[in-house]
Design brief:
- The chain is built from 1 helix and 20 strands.
- By secondary structure, it is mainly beta.
- Strands 1, 2, 3, 4, 5, 6, 7, 8, 9 and 10 form a 10-stranded antiparallel β-sheet that branches. It has an 8-stranded antiparallel β-barrel with strand order 11-14-15-16-17-18-19-20. A two-stranded antiparallel sheet has the order 12-13.
- A hairpin with a 7-residue loop joins strand 17 and strand 18.
- The chain is globular.
Length: 399
């Protein structure tokens, strides 16, 4: 449902952001189709307290992978469109991840244990350095979901203590050199990193990271047949402060560490938060600022409410108070704003929090603008740079 909404949003935004002057342009957008692939190394994230229960020699030892991606993107032709970046593009894509593995019995396809995930995502990118008219250094981010994983179960526990759900969030970031052969064709090659995780909504969730090379070809269906466009002069003469107010909610799993042995708590726990962020606009594409973050985590502060004398397999707790499960923190943020989307990265510290949530926290958030000031908020939060916390799904407004 979310993906369908994003596709419709991409289509409507590309039409709605073209003003009356664009009627002179035959094609308000330039369309591209690209195919890319390359070898990758797959690794598991750290921070899962229950992972040591499996002997390391029994885990999958071959971490090679070879993805294949097919993408459609479009670029705006009107340089006066808000946040326009020359050569910038956005679109939707799909990718198949073929993971190879080696087990104690011999070589096999790890799809038998982990699956052959298919990713569907939105993406955005563009050049941030030109070496001439035809060669540029580009960035690109991907954000979506990966389907088709085989989740952990007792029968494959010695091989798969990596994936806990059939659907996982997918996040990718890459840099590449792109060479324009002609108006219709360009080739590219570069480096990419990716992360797959279910956002702590299911267990196990150590996450999967991949690092690899990426190469491909990009076809432009309706080129403008002109020299590469020059950057538009920044029209913002004075820095101004904007205020973002966002609400979010999600659910998560929790490992209880009240005793000598960590125990996975049954069920799911709710999470919710509100953030108020004054942001200073530095130009068309950049904003920086701070945020006051109030977050409630229904899985926190359990050690003070443990019911003694229960069966170890039947863990019970008394109900904790709302205040004792609430964290108050301050965070610093940097944000890249482009047409339709904005990517926000934050680093914060809890000033008051339950013992499990004390210390630093980190957020990465994708904002999808439904209008000039209203946006969808999809993000993920870490604790102390490695402990997976929760997803952040919500709505926000810029005042």
């Amino acid at each position: 449902m979310l993906l369908a909404s994003l596709i419709l949003l991409l289509s409507s935004a590309s039409a709605s952001q073209v003003n009356a002057e664009d009627s002179l342009i035959r094609h308000p957008v330039v369309s591209h189709i690209s195919v890319e692939t390359g070898p990758e190394y797959m690794a598991t994230s750290v921070g899962d307290e229950l992972r040591p229960k499996v002997d390391p020699q029994d885990r999958i030892s071959d971490h090679s992978a070879w993805p294949l991606h097919l993408k459609y993107s479009f670029s705006f032709t009107n340089p006066e469109i808000r946040n326009y970046l020359p050569g910038g593009y956005q679109g939707i894509g799909a990718g198949l991840l073929n993971i190879g593995a080696l087990d104690p019995g011999g070589i096999h396809k790890s799809g038998k244990y982990i699956g052959y995930p298919v990713s569907v995502y939105v993406f955005q990118g563009g050049p941030f350095w030109h070496f001439g008219e035809k060669l540029s250094l580009n960035y690109e981010w991907n954000f979506g979901a990966a389907f088709g994983w085989k989740p952990y179960c007792d029968s494959n526990s010695m091989y798969n203590l990596t994936v806990g759900s059939r659907v996982n969030a997918y996040l990718g970031l890459g840099v590449r050199l792109e060479w324009r052969l002609n108006d219709y064709t360009s080739v590219f090659g570069g480096f990419t990193v990716s992360h797959y995780s279910n956002g702590n909504t299911s267990w196990p969730n150590p996450g999967v990271n991949s690092f690899g090379l990426r190469m491909g070809v990009n076809l432009t269906l309706n080129p403008l047949k002109e020299k590469y466009p020059q950057p538009v002069a920044d029209t913002i003469k004075k820095r101004k402060i904007e205020y973002d107010l966002s609400l979010w909610g999600s659910s998560r799993k929790r490992v209880y560490k009240g005793g000598d042995t960590p125990v996975l708590l049954p069920g799911h726990f709710g999470c919710a938060g509100i953030s108020f962020a004054p942001m200073v606009r530095l130009g068309r594409w950049w904003r920086v600022g701070g945020s006051l973050d109030i977050q409630w985590d229904g899985s926190s502060d359990k050690r003070h409410y443990y019911v003694e004398g229960e069966n170890p397999e039947d863990i019970r707790f008394k109900k904790s108070s709302f205040i004792r499960q609430t964290s108050w923190g301050l965070s610093a943020h940097g944000e890249l704003q482009m047409p339709i989307f904005a990517v926000n990265i934050g680093l914060g510290c809890n000033l008051y929090a339950p013992w499990e949530n004390r210390g630093l926290y980190q957020n990465i958030t994708l904002k999808t603008y439904l209008g000039p000031r209203v946006f969808l908020n999809v993000g993920y939060q870490l604790r102390n740079f490695y402990q997976q916390a929760n997803l952040m799904l919500g709505l926000g407004i810029t005042i």
